[in-house]
Design brief:
The protein is mainly alpha-helical and 507 residues long. 55% of the residues lie in helices and 8% in strands. The chain has four domains: 62 residues, no CATH class; 163 residues, no CATH class; 95 residues, no CATH class; 160 residues, Alpha-Beta Plaits, CATH 3.30.70. The N and C termini lie far apart (67 Å). Its EC number is 2.7.7.6.
């Protein structure tokens, strides 16, 4: 370590590794400090606590040293605010690591001498990946922070330092709404960016900014369990079926979770599942509800999602939790979409009236295409040979009444979906856009997505501005004049023009 010569030490220090750039100045300060000290052999060695004038250690003086060592107002304020938020421990831990630059970004891994094929940002590949760049300065994430600023008409530069960015983002918007809601959004958006960044690196999933923002909005508003908070904030038009169903399912589960598990078995299921509820868990059930999904079908759908996540290992508990989640989801749908279900029932009743007279249901789509449901009963014909008896099946003239009734609502909806797609296709061609689609998923080049989004919304409004059900009933009455059909269900008061401004209207 060194030699003691003439009442002073001559230090001979060796280091186990080379210094990083940010460590060179620290080492120089350390060497200067130990060189400035003088040790006298004739003096008695004693322990001396330098921060205290008396040389005695105290907890108060140690706390003061720590405060002075981290005398950064922005960091202190940001951490104080963050620790006061009532958020899940996972989110708190992530936020602390983000504000303290403790996340395993590629620049931090390089400082720990971890060898990687590349240290550049995995999203843009233009600069070295650091917290400041990845979260706030990357071309793929920078616009995500400006989008919520536009909701409240805020402009101005945002710092790329995490602590200052957090304070700016929340304080600027505190003038228009409750401040902690924007702090929740900041944490949720940061966590969503990190989650999707990891998905891109480790699972080869595409980084889609729209999906990042969608997840962040959901998790930030999840704290309040009501879409009204998002509306108050002017965050986004949360009017999609899946999103609304999520809120209702979460409300029911939160209410059940507060009950006593000893008297209410649903309380245990609710507590186990409340952190598992997201768009993916309920989306399939919500989207197939318009096709008459049954309780068993909903249970199996949700069970598959939970099994994929390994959320519940015990098969018995998994089955019970799936049953509870299915009942809750279907209950939420019944409460939310009463008007839609009345339309589905009316369509089924009309089909039953037609099929009861041994006639197939038929209608004309908004594009003028005739559609006939081909469901007929099969007859059997036996052919006896010397070796065996062959059974042949062929359609008879009798229609399958039940199949005609249950299949008509989804088939009619599909015919409307197809009409919308064709209307959008024609409009995109006129606008010079390339177009591809599968069912209700429309595609074009990335540079034309905004234009296609505008077109498909306009065509949707154009399609449903027409009296769809009135035209259908009129066609039934002309085709089957001898039959009496039930009256039309009451129409709602939803303004179709709102679809033009809906962010999450279409895929």
């Amino acid at each position: 370590m060194g030699d003691f010569v003439e009442d002073r030490w001559e230090w001979k220090l060796s280091w186990r590794r080379d210094f990083f750039d940010h460590e060179v100045e620290m080492v120089a300060d350390f060497l200067a400090e130990i060189d400035s000290g003088h040790i006298h052999q004739s003096s008695r060695d004693v322990l001396w606590w330098k921060p205290d004038p008396n040389g005695l250690f105290s907890t108060k003086s140690a706390y003061k040293v720590l405060q002075e060592a981290h005398n950064n107002d922005s960091e202190d304020n940001a951490l104080k605010i963050m620790w006061k938020l009532k958020i899940p421990p996972r989110a708190s831990a992530f936020s602390w690591r983000l504000l303290k630059n403790r996340l395993p970004t590629r620049d931090n891994l390089r400082k720990r001498q971890v060898t990687l094929p590349s240290y550049s940002c995995p999203l843009c590949d233009h600069e070295e990946e650091s917290i400041n760049h990845l979260m706030f300065n990357c071309s793929k994430t920078r616009s995500l922070w400006w989008e919520p600023m536009r909701w409240v008409n805020r402009v101005g530069p945002l710092s790329i330092d995490p602590k200052n960015h957090f304070l700016q983002f929340s304080q600027w918007n505190s003038q228009t709404c409750t401040i902690n809601r924007w702090e929740f959004l900041w944490i949720a958006l940061s966590l969503s960016i990190w989650h999707h960044r990891n998905g891109m690196i480790f699972k080869n999933q595409p980084f889609i900014p729209e999906k990042v923002m969608d997840d962040a909005l959901f998790h930030s508003c999840l704290k309040h369990l009501t879409p009204l908070n998002a509306i108050d904030l002017r965050l986004a038009p949360f009017d999609s079926l899946v999103q609304d169903a999520l809120w209702r399912v979460l409300e029911i589960m939160k209410r059940d979770a507060e009950k006593d598990p000893q008297t209410n078995p649903n309380a245990l299921h609710a507590r186990r599942l409340i952190n598992q509820v997201d768009r993916k868990l309920v989306k399939q059930t919500v989207m197939t509800s318009v096709y008459g999904v049954t309780y068993i079908g909903a249970r199996d759908q949700i069970k598959r999602r939970l099994k994929e996540r390994c959320a519940i290992e015990d098969d018995v508990e998994l089955f019970a939790a799936s049953c509870y989640a299915a009942r809750t989801t279907l209950t939420a749908l019944e409460e939310m979409f009463e008007a839609a279900r009345s339309i589905m029932s009316w369509l089924g009743d009309c089909a039953k009236v037609i099929a009861s007279t041994n006639q197939a249901v038929q209608w004309i789509t908004p594009l003028g295409l005739p559609v006939v449901q081909p469901y007929r009963q099969f007859g059997r014909h036996l052919i006896k040979t010397s070796l065996q008896i062959l059974t042949l099946q062929r359609e008879t003239n009798k229609v399958m009444v039940k199949r005609q009734r249950t299949a008509f609502p989804p088939n009619f909806v599909h015919s409307l979906d197809g009409s919308h797609m064709m209307m959008t296709t024609v409009a995109c061609k006129k606008a010079g856009l390339n177009f591809a689609g599968v069912h209700d998923s429309y595609w074009t080049h990335a540079c034309d997505v905004d234009e296609m989004n505008r077109i498909l919304r306009e065509k949707f409004v154009e399609l449903y501005d027409a009296p769809i059900l009135e035209n259908l009933l009129e066609s039934f009455q002309k085709t089957f004049p001898a039959l009496n059909f039930p009256p039309l269900p009451e129409r709602g008061d939803f303004d179709l023009q709102e679809v033009l401004e809906s962010t999450y209207f279409f895929n």
